[in-house]
Amino acid sequence: MAQALLSLKSIDTFYGPAQVHYGLSLDVAEGEIVCLLGGNASGKSTAMKVILGLLAPRSGSVLWEGRDITGLPTPDRIGLGLASVPEGRRIFPDMSVEENLLMGAYLRRDRREIGEDAEGALALFPRLRERARQAGGSLSGGEQQMLAIARALMCRPRLVCMDEPTMGLSPSYVESVLEAVKALNGRGLSVLMIEQNAQQALGIAHRGYVLQDGHLVLQGGARELLEDPRVRDAYLGGERMEGI
Amino acid sequence: MPLLECSTLSRSFGGLRALSDFGLEVGSGEVVGIIGPNGAGKTTLFNLISGADRADSGRVRFRGEDVSGYGLDRRARLGLVRTFQDGRCFANLGVEDNVLLGAHGRRLASRPRSARWAIELAQALLPLAAFRDEERRLRSEAATLIESFGERLAPRSGEKAYRLSYANRRRLEIARALAARPELLLLDEPTAGMNPSETLELLEYLRGLKSRGQAMLVIEHKLPLVMKLSDRIVAMDEGEKIAEGEAEDIVRDARVIEAYLGKVHSQSGAPAREGPHGAGPA
Amino acid sequence: MGASLQLWAGQVLNGLVLGNVYALLAAGLALVFGVARLVNFAHGSVYMAGSFAGWFLVSRLGWPLWAALPGAAFVGVALGLLIERLAVRPYRRSGGIAPLLATLGAGMMLDSLAEILFSPNPRSFPAVLPSTRYSLGPVSIGPLDLLILGVSALSAIALFAFLKFSRAGRGLRAAAQDFEAAQQMGVRVERVGAAAFAIASGLGALAGALIGMYYNFISPSSGFEAGLKGFTACVLGGLGSVPAAMAGGLALGLGESLGVALLGSSFRSLISFGLLLAVLFLKPEGLFGKRGGGLERGAAVGTFLPLRGAFKPPRSLAIFLAIAALALPLVAPGPYLLQILTGAWISALFALSLSFVAGGAGVMSLGHAGLMAIGAYASGLLTLKAGWPFLPAFLASGLVAALLGSLLAFPALKLKGHYIAIAMLGLGEIVNQVILNWDALTQGAMGLAGIPAPRILGLAITSARGFYYLCLIVLLGGGAVLAAFLRSPLGRTLRALREDELAAASLGIGPRSYKSLAFAIGAFFAGLAGSLTAHLYTYISHETFGSRDSILGLTMVILGGLGNLWGAVLGALALTALPELLRFAAQGRGLVFGIILLLVLRFRPQGLLGSE
What we know:
The structure holds three protein chains of three kinds.
Chain A: E1 6-15, E2 18-28, E3 33-38, H1 44-52, E4 59-64, E5 67-68, H2 74-80, E6 82-85, H3 97-104, H4 111-124, H5 126-130, H6 141-153, E7 159-163, H7 171-186, E8 190-195, H8 198-204, E9 207-212, E10 215-221, H9 222-227, H10 229-236
Chain B: E1 4-13, E2 16-26, E3 31-35, H1 42-50, E4 57-62, E5 65-66, H2 72-78, E6 80-82, H3 95-102, H4 116-125, H5 129-147, H6 166-179, E7 184-188, H7 196-211, E8 215-219, H8 223-229, E9 232-237, E10 240-245, H9 247-252, H10 254-261
Parallel strand pairs in B: 3-8, 3-9, 6-7, 7-8
Antiparallel strand pairs in B: 1-2, 1-4, 4-5, 9-10
Chain C: H1 2-36, H2 43-60, H3 65-88, H4 98-118, E1 134-136, E2 139-141, H5 143-165, H6 167-177, H7 179-184, H8 189-215, H9 222-237, H10 242-263, H11 268-282, H12 315-331, H13 335-360, H14 369-384, H15 390-409, H16 417-437, H17 439-442, E3 448-449, E4 455-456, E5 459-460, H18 464-487, H19 489-499, H20 501-505, H21 511-537, E6 539-540, H22 547-560, H23 565-581, H24 589-603
Antiparallel strand pairs in C: 1-2, 3-6, 4-5
């Protein structure tokens, strides 16, 4: 089997005294769209922090192409080809759309090519082109999400981690975002999508993992998970509540 | 007259509507559960009810009094006490001290409020019998509360709170809130971070409180717990109330399921699948 | 009519020139705050260093201005990098107000270093520009004015260009807008922090050199006030943004100059600090800022310490120490030791008071010496002018300090994080400025001389032994009372407030009212300490108690252990009596104390005896 691009192996994470992950393991292979699903307090967003290096796990390792990057600081991970679309977009509110895109390419020095990539990003999201000079904070939620994705692409990543890209978006924007992700994946980008919105995410993914209270309770192909009633239980708190 | 009455509460942050036109009532002795996915506005609601934040519009009435303009501490003194999602104990104070602080509003020094400075100074400097008796009484009440958690807190009653386990700290926070003898107790995810057996234990404890007539408003994600505890459940999504009613109905409500699991991706063309009682897919 | 128009025009020009320099200062503060979420209390000292660097390069090395000004800026850059590396980065992890206190310590060290190198006396900055003046309508403008306006404008443009168009500047702005997102773009946030400090300090030092030239006056003690003016400008404009802060600087310069034109030059500082407090109390986000700009979410004062078990001496030891202290005069070889310890007892009383307020209730009272000033003047005036006997005046001084102090501090207590620290600093300064300017009451700059010796039961206390006993007994009494407070339910309530204000409020504890009470109690004892000082020295002025004493007091308290009463006494002894006994040069002390503060904050933040 081909080596996974990104792997988590037996990750235990803590926030102070509270344990957030219990032996979490997952893989993303090159060219895949993988979903990480779960309800509130399932630990899925914290997983993204661990992957990006914003939070250190107490045990376990993060691997990139088989190489242990658990101790590598965040900027170095970006340099390897990992990009992020943070939860809540986190675009820079007082910077223009163009400047936000430039920030995505912060680690690059090839100015002409950065400019070309920015053009490409705006072509992919025409609504952004119209607002190229506008401040990021004045865009609507959906537009900000587009911008956050475009920004992540600016460093020419191999894998993008997206944290709840459809949260708070209207149905039509949700459509657009998911279509964009699919299109990008078609061009070779690997995606790890952390989502609460299981139906939507599984609709475009290859595989999925389901977290509940920090434990991995289900995994498999996207199609199978879509049909599996246990996914719903995991969200609404079923099997793990023995005795109730 | 309902114990708590919220009407048309709204709160926005920047352009984001955290809470829209929200209304809620809690009666004496009632337990109401609040559920909803991430970002639904539950914590905002709690902040507005408890006084940690002020609403942009709408009113909060507690025991008939309009408390919309009151701060956190003033509402607490009226009997509206809350706990926090992250279990905020006074880490460097002892277990007993934590619980004693809960009784602050019931001390002589708090009544009458206008003389509180004088009374506090007097209590510190003059060994009057009234003060001694009050301390003794409050300590024994605190001990009772600590013991109500059985073997969990009582053996550790002399320790500082930071040495307690996570679950114990949450219990301590509840004991401290109960020391205030609240009319309405607001519990913000009381079992967050607890394992199944701890959760079960706390559920039993809360049911005990309920049977003794304690009114509670509980935010929780663990649906089975909320179902077993609440008289009524209110479901929220995107700052609005989407359903309200008895537990069994709420859990089968199509809108609730949709809020948690999301709509079916409409690109496939299939409409959201609903059963006769609003059951979800599969 | 023509003459007064000229006067006003002159003041406007003066205001613009000053305003530009304030803008430079404020820009630096805003830049650091935006990126590092930190209020840099060493900024004023860097300004002072810049003024000396400029002077040195021009008058000692004979450099031309076009080289000396960049040279001064360069010194600033170097200092900024040094401060960031040694006094900011190591303390980030401690969180809370540790970085704030560390920068205070760094500032103290810089000021002391300047005193050692250049002596505490002010100097003049030799004129290097022709003194011709040109008429521009009603205004008479000189080359120096033009230079300052030109240099500030150039610097502002350079700063904007850097921030707007360069990659590094973009990274800086991104980090200021969203720290974590910037990290996720690959921004190395430490380097960004260091860069911000470097630029800010370069601008600050440049401002110092320019003002030194403008007023033909530089002094090692000019840093503190400059820093405070920088804060004022920032707060006036709005701390989050560089342009807003610069606008605030201009507004401050104009406001100050016009105020001086109306009221007189001795009111200059009073006007500035009055503006500072007015803005903080009425519109903390500043004229151009948005609500919730970020300072309010700042450091929760007093909760950065890993409070684990304070060492409290057992009762027998406590009694033994008290008896030993009381018996000391019987075996002392001469008055010298007693005099030193008397000073230490007064400092200890001050430290106790500060420890109670800062440690007991979590209110970072950075202007605490102002309370001593109030008590000293109350007692001095009552005995000297109103003929009161000592004991009633003594007690009244405590009460006046308590009442006046809590009244002044009350509006500040609703502020959070860094705002309250700045407000307290400003309040302390305002007390001295009011004392200076209210001639009718305080005799202004002349001070109060001839304050009578204390008379208790007919006996006048004039000997070293007499004062020793008086101060020691007051200290023991004060310590006992404060200890009783800390042991009582009030103490428990205050500790809860310090631990977690939100949780305390959720239980019905009114934060503002309890903090005020704690402040009033502490102020009472600080007032008593002031009264003792007044009667011991027999002469006081607006210079007797200053920010230096406040910061020294804070160092004592942190050294001993925040909230630990015995620690406060130990800290006072260590930093007052010990240096005297070791014949430590007066000038090196700030340096040593700054180092002590930084070391304690880094390696033993709970202090020698642990925090309570």
